[in-house]
């Protein structure tokens, strides 16, 4: 696509290029107008109205997201196994303090090998979901999950567990991004953020279940004290696979595949009976075609390489940043809470009790985030969460540098609980809301996959560091590691403030227009989007009219840029171009 650059005063309206108008000229303008009105009506719905009108879509989104309970469960048990008596009796070696412990290289290996499996699963999903759709990919992942659990349950050595964790990581990687992309595309605008954020309930809820199971397994001294938690994972795959067989496919995927009638049927099926009046569902599908046609200009084939070209490059950079901030914000210190508290002097029962409360905060935090999402945007929640976590990390580090007492151990545990609550109120769930909305529709599944890949690779590095910071036979920093995480937190806070835009409340087409016009990060909520263009906002805090500010507007991938003067610019009219469909947002 040939880019067009023009300069105009700040108060003027900027228009889309003739090429973009031509891209949608084959569509029925009346149907697109109807679809646009449906989108605007959805944006005005309250939370309760949205649930009443689109409860079926929300229900299916929650159902598929529940697959993440399995990953949250296993991630929690493998980290807590390192302090579980039954597991230590089977695989532990005596450390310098005379206590049984799992060597640091095996601790990090068991965690990281699952990440390697997740990387394989992520890229498998990026290809399978776009080729075969969400339903078939999900069912295939569940079949694979059922088979891989056998490896963990019958393991007789740490090396066998390494193989088992690698194999189980593959379907986990598939579910991580499949559910987020599905939620973003099956749900209307007002529920999109909430249902994408529900992914955090899957991770947190699985961790909470695992904490309860492990607390009960403290009384089992034999090998079934650690085999039983693995066996419980067989509860999930069969009912989830059977249920998914009846789930609707993503309507956006159906549109990308040219199955417009099927997409219309899915829209009607997922909405309250009678919600779509005459031709409204057909119009909504036409609106999806309109958005897809615009995105084809910058992502013609939806390939991996197109994520690094033109306007998609900025979206990809933000995608990477959002995932990395979710990891390096400082919450990672809570991953080995049981072992760290035990090494500091707390009893095994007390440490597992503290871990149970900590895990419960995941569910409480997401509930709070749902309330917050109804009152404010994604960006302020993200910034607030990072800043508040910093206020907890500093006192944890201080407590780690002074002699330990029961009161100080309890204070340390309480601060860990608060950090987990803050994380699951902010970065945990809101990350999934942002990454589900941020990419272009044609690149959504692949973009989320690539972002999660960056997260997983970074998590391998982080877990290696964390294990050595906490383990008594390695660096043994203990709570003093909070100083390291505080430094990471401040870097994350800086990036978020300057680079993360607000994505909530916009349709996918509106986000396309905002990025195409290179709207500054902190101005996304201060511009007015009209049917055909982005009108640079009239608020004085955004731009000073008296300064005759010049706004550079770039649409598409600039391969040969042309600067238009006033006479040439008049070609792009405020009125709809005859024969073309208005670029509705």
UniProtKB/TrEMBL annotation:
Domain named Major facilitator superfamily (MFS) profile: residues: 60-504
Membrane topology annotation: Multi-pass membrane protein
Name of protein: Major facilitator superfamily (MFS) profile domain-containing protein
Keyword vocabulary terms for this entry: Membrane, Transmembrane, Transmembrane helix, Transport
A GO MF term: carbohydrate:proton symporter activity
Localization in the cell: Membrane
Recorded catalytic activity of this chain's protein: myo-inositol(out) + H(+)(out) = myo-inositol(in) + H(+)(in)
Family: Belongs to the major facilitator superfamily. Sugar transporter (TC 2.A.1.1) family.
Transmembrane segments: 62-84, 104-125, 137-156, 162-182, 194-214, 234-255, 318-336, 356-375, 382-402, 414-435, 447-465, 477-498
UniProt keyword Cytoplasm, yes or no: no
GO terms for cellular component: membrane
């Amino acid at each position: 696509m040939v880019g067009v650059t023009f300069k105009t005063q700040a108060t003027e309206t900027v228009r889309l290029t003739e090429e973009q108008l031509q891209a949608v000229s084959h569509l029925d303008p009346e149907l697109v107008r109807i679809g646009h009105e449906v989108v605007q009506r959805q944006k005005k719905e309250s939370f309760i109205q949205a649930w009443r009108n689109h409860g079926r879509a929300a229900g299916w989104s929650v159902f598929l997201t529940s697959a993440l309970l399995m990953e949250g469960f296993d991630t929690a048990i493998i980290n807590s196994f390192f302090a579980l008596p039954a597991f230590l009796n089977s695989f532990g070696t005596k450390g310098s303090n005379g206590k049984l412990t799992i060597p640091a290289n095996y601790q990090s290996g068991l965690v990281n090998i699952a990440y390697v499996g997740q990387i394989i699963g992520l890229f498998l999903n990026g290809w399978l979901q776009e080729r075969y759709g969400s339903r078939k990919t999900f069912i295939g992942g569940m079949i694979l999950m059922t088979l891989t659990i056998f490896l963990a349950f019958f393991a007789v050595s740490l090396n066998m567990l390494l193989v088992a964790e690698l194999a189980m990581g593959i379907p986990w990687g598939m579910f991580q991004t499949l559910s987020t992309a599905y939620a973003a595309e099956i749900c209307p605008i007002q529920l999109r953020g909430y249902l994408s954020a529900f992914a955090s309930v899957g991770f947190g809820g699985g961790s909470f279940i695992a904490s309860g199971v492990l607390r009960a397994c403290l009384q089992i001294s034999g090998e079934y004290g650690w085999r039983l938690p693995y066996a419980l994972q067989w509860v999930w795959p069969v009912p989830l696979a059977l249920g998914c067989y009846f789930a609707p496919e993503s309507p956006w995927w159906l549109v990308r595949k040219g199955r417009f009638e099927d997409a219309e049927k899915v829209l009607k099926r997922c909405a309250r009976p009678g919600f779509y009046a005459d031709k409204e569902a057909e119009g909504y599908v036409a609106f999806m075609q309109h958005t897809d046609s615009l995105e084809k200009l910058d992502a013609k084939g939806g390939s991996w390489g197109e994520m690094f070209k033109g306007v998609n490059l900025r979206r990809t950079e933000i995608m990477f940043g959002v995932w990395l901030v979710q990891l390096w914000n400082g919450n990672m210190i809570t991953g080995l809470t049981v072992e760290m508290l035990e090494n500091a002097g707390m009893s095994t029962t007390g440490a597992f009790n503290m871990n149970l409360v900590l895990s419960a905060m995941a569910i409480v935090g997401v509930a709070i985030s749902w309330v917050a999402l109804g009152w404010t945007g994604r960006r302020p929640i993200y910034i607030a969460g990072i800043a508040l976590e910093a206020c907890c990390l500093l006192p944890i580090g201080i407590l780690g540098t002074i002699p330990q007492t029961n009161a100080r151990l309890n204070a340390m545990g309480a601060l860990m609980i608060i950090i987990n609550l803050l994380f699951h109120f902010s970065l945990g769930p809101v990350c999934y809301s942002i990454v589900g909305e941020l990419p272009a529709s044609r690149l959504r599944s692949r973009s989320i996959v690539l972002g999660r890949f960056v997260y997983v690779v970074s998590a391998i590095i982080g877990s290696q560091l964390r294990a050595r910071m906490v383990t008594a036979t390695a660096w043994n920093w203990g709570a003093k590691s909070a100083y390291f995480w505080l430094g990471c937190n401040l870097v994350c806070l800086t990036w978020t403030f300057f680079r993360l835009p607000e994505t909530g409340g916009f349709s996918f087409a509106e986000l396309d227009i905002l990025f195409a016009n290179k709207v500054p990060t902190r101005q996304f909520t201060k511009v007015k989007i009209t049917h055909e263009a982005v009108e640079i906002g009239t608020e004085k805090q955004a731009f000073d009219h008296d300064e005759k500010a010049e706004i550079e507007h770039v649409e598409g991938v600039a391969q040969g840029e042309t600067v238009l003067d006033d006479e040439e610019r008049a070609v792009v009219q405020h009125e709809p171009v005859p024969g073309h469909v208005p670029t509705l947002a």
